[in-house]
């Protein structure tokens, strides 16, 4: 597919975003990768460029600073690059009681998970309309469907992503823009999460996937214009069970399970017992 069109991926230096970048590169898609400064993004971009003979631009910006979303768009615009695929992947997670978090963390979580997706979609909309057929992939979570203790803010941000994507899809289909939302369950994206996942019970462990398994499912589903992608048989099963069992039983099982998790969040909270990365 190597041409003058680009796929922009946020949070592309690690985890699921990195796996998505590799999958897109293997399909000869030119890339614009965004991640935090000092995230080894440049060397990753260079390796993709060499290996897959594609164009790759790395933009190192902290997206939790709203102005940086505008600067990303400005840079792409000034370089006259044409984006026909926007992958809103960046997001941070937490598993902790609401009282264990602080305002700074929740603000950052809402900014990265909700505002950045909304803002970038708005900024790139005209470009996507010009370069149709075009695609938007929003990364939600299985947490969008369950109202779990210790996942209150994270789950709500992912419910926003789910609802936003479904509404936008209806609106943009006549403009030739496809909108897909992927809702993965647990993925082994980084050391902290891998460690947490290992401590899960047997049933929950069966649903954990590697980002390298999920990324091809995501891109295939996106190109096939699927509305919602739930990767993995176990995750699909969880959703079916959720519909079949009475809600009080679901709540009991889910909350019993989630309460066994150690609390964690990303960032610099000093009142959180266990600090780690996303899911
Ligand atoms: N892992 C799971 O189990 C799971 C399950 C369902 C959904 N998801 C969703 O999948 C997405 C990716 O999660 P992940 O587990 O792959 O996360 P991750 O391993 O923590 O990677 C996050 C990526 O985002 C970048 N990033 C973090 N903060 C940023 C900021 N302020 N500005 C710009 N880039 C930033 C990171 O860059 P650095 O390398 O520089 O930190 C990294 O590239 C999230 O939306 C998450 O909610 C994850």
Describe the structure.
With about 280 residues, the protein is of the alpha/beta class. It has a single domain, classed as NAD(P)-binding Rossmann-like Domain (Rossmann fold). It has helices spanning about 15-25, 40-50, 65-80, 105-130, 150-170, 190-200, 200-205, 210-225, 235-245, 245-260, and strands at about 5-10, 30-35, 55-60, 80-90, 95, 135-140, 175-180, 230, 265. The strands form 2 sheets. Strands 3-2-1-4-6-7-8 form a 7-stranded parallel β-sheet, with helices on both faces. A two-stranded antiparallel ribbon has the order 5-9. Helix 1 crosses helix 8 (about 210-225), helix 3 (about 65-80) runs parallel beside helix 4 and helix 4 runs parallel beside helix 5 (about 150-170). The chain is globular. It starts with a strand and ends in a 14-residue tail after the last strand. The structure holds NADP nicotinamide-adenine-dinucleotide phosphate. NADP nicotinamide-adenine-dinucleotide phosphate binds next to helix 1. Pfam families: adh_short (PF00106). It comes from Flavobacterium xinjiangense. This is Short-chain dehydrogenase.
The small molecules bound here are:
NADP nicotinamide-adenine-dinucleotide phosphate
Mean pLDDT: 90
CATH topology: Rossmann fold
Number of domains: 1
N-C termini distance: 31 Å
Q: How many DSSP E strands?
A: 9
Q: Which structural class best describes the helix and strand composition?
A: alpha/beta
Give the helix proportion (percent range): 40-55%
User: Strand fraction band?
Assistant: 15-25%
Gyration radius, rounded = 18 Å
Q: Helix and strand string, N-terminal first?
A: EHEHEHEEHEHEHHHEHHE
CATH architecture: 3-Layer(aba) Sandwich
| Gross morphology | globular
- Classified by CATH, the class is Alpha Beta
- Most strands sheet: 7 strands, parallel
Regions with little confidence, pLDDT below 50 for 5+ residues: 267-279
How would you classify the quaternary structure? single chain
CATH superfamily: NAD(P)-binding Rossmann-like Domain
Task: Give the number of helices.
Answer: 10
Instruction: Please give the order of strands in the largest beta sheet.
Output: 3-2-1-4-6-7-8
Organism: Flavobacterium xinjiangense
Family: Belongs to the short-chain dehydrogenases/reductases (SDR) family.
Pfam families: adh_short
GO molecular function: oxidoreductase activity
